[in-house]
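Narrative summary of target 7.
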Amino acid sequence: MNRIDKLFSEKKGDILNVYFTAGFPALDSTNILVKALESSGADIIEIGIDVVKFGNSSLTLKCEARNMMTRETIITIDSTTMVSLDVDGKPRPHGKTQIEYVSDRLK
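Modeled conformation, tokenized:
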């Protein structure tokens, strides 16, 4: 039995399933959000991201939200661009050139 099937068969009451895009609202927020959701009692945490383009101060992402049980697509966002800003609100280089995985950052 996989962990999701086990959760649905053993937990009595509501199940909290949270889906969010990694790196939003800030590039370094993913780890913070996962820890906060886990400590707040989230049962399932889904993280979605597909980097389309690395710019000097921006990242262009694509994401898709799916039903966890049926895998049916609920919504697809073809392109969203996040820009790294300095304290004055001006674009600043973020130094990213490839995807970084949270598991690698926690080692």
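Residues 3-96 form one domain.
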